[in-house]
Amino acid sequence: MKIALFGRNVAESTLPFFQELIDKLQLSDGEIFVYRPLFEKLSGRIIFRKQPRLFSVQAEIRENVDYLFSIGGDGTILDAVTLVSDSGIPLIGINLGRLGFLSGISKEEIIPAVDAIILKKFALDRRTLLRLDSPDHLFGEFNYALNDLTVSKSSPMTMLTIKTWINGDFLNSYWADGLIVATPTGSTAYSLSCTGPILSPDSENFVITPIASHNLTVRPIVIRDDCEIRIKVEGKGGEFLVSLDSRVERVENGVELLIRKADFNIQLLRLSDKNFFKTIREKLNWGLDKRNC
């Protein structure tokens, strides 16, 4: 079994969990690849029984690893997506952060999770991504998002007019602080905090959710994910912000953004005793009777 390890931050309090994971993998005769910036942060603080192989780009792991462990929180998973891209390498999220919708393995589950992977007692969830096409190729080669695309104002004192079309048909002019186009995965992220609905991962939909709409009758709308969404932004500020997951760019007013479903999926590994509905119940405290707390 060949495993790649990816992470961004290494707090002192998380070192025991890194050590536990690395010990377990190496004692299980796993060959470890470590993201080079992560290895530099772990160097001298973690003991490797055998020197790992280092990587910096996808090409170095594309045909060489079976799984990639993302160690951190949901933000770390989103960064890992840009590295995995269309390689088909399954992602496994170990949550060292807080909420952890995507990074579904807790710190306490590291050992049983590795055992389950060795025994192949897991499922793979295929998650839809969205793709952005823009005149200036704003986000370079990786113009995809697992969670969402967000258009937002660049100044707190301005308001945007966001004209939106679905398959060429005019939908609306949103007068708002911004607009979110979310995948089912992203429906539990920023869109949810803006009163958007929760979509199950296999629903084959996108949700369009306004941010602080100045027209109170405007509500989120769910559309099929084979639709093409076109957005054109106007406003007094002269520019606006576009984000794909955690990456942000400034864009001049009048630029048209074209959003459609990506032609590949991301595979998220899920342990057999977990499912989407169990996760949202636990993470959102559904069914919790606070009268007894």
The stretches of 5 or more residues where confidence is low (pLDDT under 50) are none
- If classified by CATH, what would the architecture of the largest domain be? Sandwich
Shape: globular
Q: For the CA atoms, what is the radius of gyration? A: 20 Å
Question: What is the beta-strand fraction?
Answer: 35-45%
Number of distinct helices:
6
The CATH class assignment of the largest domain is: Mainly Beta
- What count of domains describes the coordinates? 2
Helix content: 10-25%
| DSSP, total strands | 18
Class of secondary structure makeup? alpha/beta
What's the mean pLDDT score?
A: 92
Q: What is the CATH H-level superfamily of the largest domain?
A: Probable inorganic polyphosphate/atp-NAD kinase, domain 2
Largest sheet: 6 strands, parallel
Enumerate the strands of the largest sheet in spatial order, edge to edge or round the barrel.
3-2-1-4-5-6
CA-to-CA gap between the ends?
Answer: 44 Å
Explain what this protein looks like in three dimensions.
With 293 residues, this protein is α/β, with parallel strands linked by helices. It contains six helices and 18 strands. The strands form three sheets. A six-stranded parallel β-sheet has the order 3-2-1-4-5-6, sandwiched between helices. Strands 8-7-18-15-10-11 form a six-stranded antiparallel β-sheet. A six-stranded antiparallel β-sheet has the order 14-13-12-9-16-17, with no helix packed on it. Helix 2 (36-42) links the parallel strand 2 (31-35) and strand 3 (53-55). The N and C termini lie far apart (44 Å).
